[in-house]
Every structure is written in C-alpha cells, then in structure tokens.
Amino acid sequence: MRIGLLTTSYPRFPGDISGTFVATFADDLRAEGHEVEVLAPEPRDATESAPRDPTWVRYAPRALERTFHGAGVPDNLRTDPLAWLGAGTYPLALLQAARRRVERWDALVTHFGLPAGPIAEAIRGARPHLCVWHSADVHLQARLPRWTRGWLHRPGLAHWVVTEDARKRLGLGPDTVVEPMRAVLGPLPTREAARRALNVEGFVVGVLARLVPIKGIEVLIEACAELDDVTLLVAGDGPERPRLETLARARGVRSRFLGWVRGPGAKERVLAAADVMAFPSRRLRSGRSEGAPVALREARLAGRPTLVSRAIDAEEGLGDDEWAAALRRVRQSPPAVVRPSASASMAPRALAALRAARDGSRRAAGT
Fold first, then answer.
1. pLDDT per position as a tens digit, 114-134
2. Which of 18, 57, 185, 223 meets the CB 3.0–4.6 Å disulfide criterion with 323?
3. For the whole prediction, is pTM greater than 0.90?
4. 83-102 burial by CB neighbour count: b if 16+ within 10 A, else e?
5. For domain 191-332, is the CATH number 3.50.50.60?
C-alpha cells in the first residue's frame, strides 16, 4: 500500500524529540512493506539532515517559518507574533502539496487532527483516512463549535486517540483506536558512563521535555531546592529555559540544562544517568493538558523509576506540594522497577483501522 502521511511535527535532526512518535508510526508501516511518503512543515532551524527523509513543505520565507517544531505550535504562537503567519499559510501549502501527490496514494494518515485531518478529507476521494489525535489538537477541536465536528464522522474516516478522555472529548465512537504512541529506545549505556559523559553526580532527577509552561518544570525546581546533593538534569529547550535556569540558580539547585539532545544515544544517556525521571506536567487555565507523553513510556522502557503529576494520572499522580516528599522516598528506598517489554508495532492496528474505514466507505457508497 502507498500511504501519504500529513503532519505538523517530525524530527528535524537525528535525536530530535520533536515528532518522534510520528516517525516511529511511519517506520512501523514501512516495516510491514508499505510505502510511506511524509509531508511535514519545513523547519527553519534544521542544520542536519532529518533521519527519515520527509518531504519538507515550505510555507513561508525561511526566516518566517516559525510556527512548528521547537516549543510546539501552542507555545510558538504564544511567544512569537510572527508564528501566526504559518498558522494560515501552512494548511494551504500542505493542501497544495498533498493534492499534487494524492493520485499516487492508496490511503492517507494524518497526525494532529488539526489542521491535517480536514486537509486530508478535502482531497482523499474514496481513499481511506486514519486521523491520529494527540493533545493540543484535541483541546482545540473540543473548544470549537459543535457544528465544526461534522467532518469527524464521514464514511471512510477512522480515528486514533492516545487516551480515552480524548475520545470522549471529541465525541468519537467505540470503534476508535485508543492507544498511546509507541516508545522506541536504543541501547542504554551504563550508569557510570552516562554520568561521566554528562558530568553529573549525586541524586539525579531527569527531565525530557520541551521547556514550556504545560511541563511544570518550576514545580520540580522548587522540590529539588528542599533536598541536599541533588542534580536536576534537563534535556530539552524552549521559551521557558532562561526563566527556569534563573530560578534554579536563585533556589540553589545544582542543575544542568542540556538543550536539545542530538545524535544517536543522546536521549539514552540522559535516561541511564537519572535516578528518577520526573513528569510534573500541569493543566493550564485554558483546560489544556498533556495526552500520553512518549517520554514517560521511554523512561519506563529504560527501567527508570518515574514520578508523574495529577495532570497525567489523576488517581496516583502528585500535587504541586507533594514532589519533594516523593523525591525523598525514591532516594531513600528506590522502588523495584519492572522494565516492560518493547511495545508492539503500531502498524497492525493502523492497517486494520484503514481497512475498516475503506469498508465503511464502500458500504456508504453501496458498492
């Protein structure tokens, strides 16, 4: 099968955390023998070749391609007025690029339901379409008027969401695929080798995240300030980085902010060096929260103890005032962690959803 994959996020360089789950999704389909052509927004700041050779879609002069990648669309729009340009031009550029290619595709997959989903619906004809939703796109679609949801229920269209809450918010049926994106890791170095490479010591609290408000990193800094001999190891970048580095210094927290980790094995070094991986994400005033962070599944796949906020796990997650005590417990009595087996390929469920969408389209057409 020849599949067109339309997305707003994709790795810009080897080791980039941006859109890794989209690349993994495409790789899983390719591993089953299918051809996958990826269309993604051209990155303004790419200096190395992307690991899987997508077709980059130019949507503005290079200096104005500020909407995607980096901090992510919501925070790019929040912090950079020029990023709003691409919010209007990329959908049109993606539509034009996909329309030129659609005749050679047998099916379409879209990642991030908005804006890619409606674009695929506009051009697919009788081809099946699988629309994959994550978090910010779910939040946006759920806030739009109900009459804008008509396209979600067209024959030939299947949906994949990463949480049951997302399915309910979108008003999708029980046949929707509900499954987080798959995590993939390379070999882990030894703890000692990773710590030497990263120059960290003591009790190491690790973070893999974009540095944006929804990640709640300041809560973790305040918690670390209550402990002795702690190193906060932060892999990621974003508009909050200067403020967070200043806060860590002011609170006397020994910290290393690595920026974007690049290259084979870079992410694995962070995971191997950490005594615990922390995910203090929060629910924003707008109501937006994270879906199912791939970094959390990567940490568990690496066998690291993990701590999460209530925004991720409403029943067992931590409140803002509970992080310091939780870190103390992990340091004093490291929990026994059962390292899960590698998650299965996403291709079988994706292909089954596409077949069901194709059959539904044929039934609706009476063929």
1. 999 999 999 999 999 999 999
2. 223
3. yes
4. bebbeebbbebbbebbeeeb
5. no
